[in-house]
Write a structure and sequence with these properties.
The chain is an alpha+beta fold. The protein is 16% helix and 39% strand. It has two domains: 48 residues, 2,3-Dihydroxybiphenyl 1,2-Dioxygenase, domain 1; 76 residues, 2,3-Dihydroxybiphenyl 1,2-Dioxygenase, domain 1 (Roll). The strands form two sheets. A five-stranded mixed β-sheet has the order 5-8-7-6-9, with helices on one face. It has a four-stranded mixed β-sheet with strand order 1-4-3-2, covered by helices on one side. It is globular and about 45 Å long.
C-alpha cells in the first residue's frame, strides 16, 4: 500500500517574453507581490487559490500550446467582485455572462497578460450541457469560442 501524499498546492510555470512587464501584470491580477524575483524568473506564492505560480523569461515569437487559464469561483457575485478588483488596478476585463462554454452555462470575466495568455474567473451556472451541432471548427473552451447573451468590456 502506497503512503498517503500531502499535496500543498498546484504548480504552474509559464514562459514570458519580458519578466518586468509580466511581474507588473501578475501583481495586479493576484493582488500580491512576488515571493521571489531573480534575473529572468519570478515566483508568486498564491494562497487563494493555492498555487505556486512561476514566470520564466524565455525568448519566443509564437504562442504555445496553452489554451487559457482559469479560476473557478462560487457565484456570479464573486465573478463581478474579481472583475471590479482587476478594473480597479487598471487591468482590461472582458465579460461573458450567461454564456454556453465547455458544455456548461457560465458567467465569466477575462484578462490577458502581456504575452497574450488569457485568464478567466468563472462560475458554472448549469453543468453538463449536450454537444451542439455546429459548422464551426473552433474548439470548445478556447477564448472567444463561447456563445454569450451578454458581453461587457471595461477600458
Amino acid at each position: 500500500m502506497a503512503a498517503a501524499v500531502t499535496v500543498l498546492k498546484a504548480h504552474l510555470a509559464i514562459n514570458v517574453r519580458n519578466i518586468e512587464h509580466s511581474i507588473e501584470f501578475y501583481r495586479k491580477m493576484f493582488g500580491i507581490e512576488p515571493s521571489k524575483v531573480r534575473r529572468g524568473y519570478a515566483k508568486f506564492d498564491v494562497q487563494t487559490p493555492p498555487l505556486n505560480f512561476t514566470l520564466n523569461e524565455v525568448p519566443f515569437t509564437d504562442s504555445g500550446a496553452l489554451s487559457h487559464l482559469g479560476i473557478q469561483v462560487a457565484s456570479t457575485v464573486d465573478v463581478l467582485a474579481m472583475r471590479q478588483k482587476w478594473a480597479d488596478v487598471g487591468l482590461y476585463t472582458r465579460d461573458e455572462m450567461h454564456t454556453d462554454c465547455c458544455y456548461a452555462t457560465q458567467d465569466k470575466t477575462w484578462v490577458r497578460d502581456p504575452d497574450g495568455n488569457e485568464w478567466e474567473v468563472f462560475v458554472v451556472l448549469v453543468d453538463n450541457l449536450p454537444e451542439k451541432q455546429t459548422q464551426e471548427t473552433a474548439a470548445c473552451c478556447a477564448p472567444g469560442c463561447c456563445t454569450s447573451a451578454q458581453e461587457h468590456s471595461n477600458v
